[in-house]
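Pasting as-is:
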Amino acid sequence: IAMDIHGGKAIMQGPKNYLASIYKSIPILITVEGANILTRSLMIFGQGALRCHPYLYEELKCFTDQDENSIADFDRLLSKHVRYHFKTLVKAKWAAWTKSRFSAVPQSAGQLRKHYQNVNYISALFACLSNLVIITSGGGFKKKEIISGYFSDALAMMYATAALLKQHHSNSESEVSLDLTDIACTECMQRAELSLHKICLNLPKPFFWGSRAILFPLGKRMRGNDAKAYCRVARQLYDFDDLSELLTQDIYRENFAHLNQAVVLSKEVAELRKKLREYPKPIDQDQDSWLSELKQQGVLDSAECEKLKSWQKAVDEVLEVDSFESI
């Protein structure tokens, strides 16, 4: 999105282009840091389910153990596994009907209380569907990479929501970031529920009808953000310096300072620019001569002219694209 907004400035490489190096690093992050299709489709759920399930790995170990008590251990684990499955099933059914609105949340949740409960709701569905997929797929669940990918997507969105809520809490429940956190959590939870719904649609028919009746009796429950919410946050990003400071606190500032200066000056000359709408600049006249003419007419004073010139210079510096003489 940043590349789209910056246009040609983000394409022409040079000292004024502060996005190109970030853009070039994306393929490295994808292939080296593990955020590739292999991780999503195989490792996160395909391998993670075996290690993270409370009983599955221990049950499999019983088959290879030579201990004479292995059969008794397996029976004990299987009994716990069955109880765990029905427990998650009941919990998921309750969550599906109530959307976890009666689940416990931290006392500091405040206006973001529903998002803590949404995480509980998605977690209950996730645990139940995990068991159902393992039951229906058996030892071949690792090969169902599309299903594993959906689980990975849902898990990633739950982690993202938890991180957003933790960040908001770490900022002392700041009102500045409340709306931004709200729309981000809503977006994440909607995507997580959609991924789980896709898993439900891909279950074998008997399980599909049963899981749909239990987990999605009222259909998908998560609503997305409306356009007004995005517009409200966009306005806050422009109006509130504290929110911009919060989002850019760990960003290298040299290039960002020019952009920030242009924004500050734009706010200062906003009323002047409205005033000048009655005096449109001729197409064949440059900015300085036009302002000088308005000054002579008494429309602007010297301080206002200088402020407008400083604003225009700052905007030009931000928009300026790197260009070099031919070698």
